[in-house]
Design goal:
Helix content is 31%, strand content 19%. The chain has helices spanning 14-25, 73-76, 92-110, 113-121, 145-156, 183-189, 209-214, 232-240, 281-297; strands at 3-9, 29-33, 43-49, 64-67, 86-87, 137-141, 160-165, 174-178, 192-195, 219-223, 244-249, 269-271. It has nine helices and twelve strands. It is of the alpha/beta class and 311 residues long. The two termini are 33 Å apart. It has two domains: 3-91 and 279-297, NAD(P)-binding Rossmann-like Domain (Rossmann fold, 3-Layer(aba) Sandwich), CATH 3.40.50.720; 93-271, NAD(P)-binding Rossmann-like Domain (Rossmann fold), CATH 3.40.50.720. Helix 1 crosses helix 9 (281-297) and helix 3 crosses helix 5 (145-156). The strands form two sheets. It has a seven-stranded parallel sheet, with helices on both faces. It has a five-stranded parallel sheet with strand order 2-1-3-4-5, covered by helices on one side. One of its GO terms (molecular function) is oxidoreductase activity.
Length: 311
């Protein structure tokens, strides 16, 4: 019987992923969209991004779940997730995309672009002299695969770059701080704070009222990881009272962001629809195919997820 890989992702095009994977998997793995599965019993592999509740129950012989992205917090928290291995994507192109977006967001605040956008709306020529990059302190919270690439790219541009992580590590141009005790001081010295923390039980609403109060007055905040890491009400308060000068936000507790959410209209805030980094079929397909072959051959998986750690 031919094995089947089922694909389920609202924002991703099935045809592009099928065309990238088919030459690597050959004739012994059928690739089918979730709405067009011909034989549910033949499905051994699932390539998914936020599938609907009850999705996995349709496939009793599932042996591998491949998350269509680097973040797996929503997947591992599901009550209907079967007891099979889970892998995530670790695609260099995703890392480059995230690093580029992080640098864009840092530069937006370092060069005070919100000030000029507001001046343009008033038709006002409002010059502000630029600061040198080495005079601006950037703190990147979370130095996993994507966070480390983001911090390294920011440091490469000459910013005084610091990182906060659970364990020590060496990154070129980045001063790394570890542990809860180090966070308040780091927040207090940073001009720009970049959140790259994964969502785990330990990081849920980790950036709360106390964390925003610890930040330097006039600092800017960037969130490119998960909305649930931030207490959004506390963030709104910090922006409204001008403790923070602005924010660049790509992720939110509830997505899409509700039309009546106050973040839409706060000065200095840029909202983007969770696109800082996305999986690209051509670059990600080889590692997906490798893990499918590993299951078929009884070999070790790459980028397997720990359910206990949540990543």
């Amino acid at each position: 019987m031919t094995d089947t890989l089922v694909f389920c992702s609202g924002p991703d095009p099935f045809d592009a992923w099928r065309d990238a994977l088919a030459p690597l998997l050959g004739d012994d793995v059928r690739i089918e969209d979730a709405d067009a599965v011909t034989d549910p019993d033949a499905v051994r592999f699932a390539l998914v991004w936020m599938p609907p509740e009850g999705f996995f129950a349709r496939f009793p012989n599932l042996e591998l779940v491949i998350n269509l992205g680097a973040g797996v917090d929503r997947l591992v928290a599901r009550s209907d997730l079967p007891n099979v291995p889970i892998t995530r994507l670790s695609d260099p192109e995703m890392g480059k995309m995230m690093a580029g977006f992080a640098l864009f967001a840092v530069l937006r605040h370092a060069r005070e672009i919100p000030h000029f956008e507001a001046a343009q709306a008033r038709k006002e020529w409002a010059y502000r002299h630029p600061r040198a990059a080495n005079e601006i302190t950037v703190a990147v919270l979370g130095l996993g695969e994507l966070g480390a690439m983001a911090a390294t790219e920011v440091a490469r541009q000459g910013f005084d770059t610091h990182g906060w992580a659970t364990r020590p590590r060496e990154l070129p141009g980045v001063t790394v701080h570890c542990g809860d005790d180090a966070l308040p001081d780091l927040l207090g010295r940073a001009d720009i704070v970049v959140c790259m923390l994964p969502l785990t039980p330990a990081t849920a609403e980790r950036l709360d009222t106390a964390a925003f109060a610890a930040m330097k007055r006039g600092a800017a905040f960037i969130n490119l990881s998960r909305g649930e890491v931030v207490d959004e009400a506390a963030l709104v308060d910090a922006l409204r009272n001008e403790h923070l000068s602005g924010a660049t936000l790509d992720v939110f507790t509830h997505e899409p962001l509700a039309p009546d959410h106050p973040l839409w209209t706060l000065p200095g805030v840029l909202i983007t629809p969770h696109l800082a980094s996305v999986a690209l079929p051509k670059s990600a397909a080889p590692q997906i195919a490798r893990n499918i072959r590993a299951v078929q051959r009884g070999e070790d998986l790459v980028n397997e997820v720990s359910r206990m750690r949540g990543y």
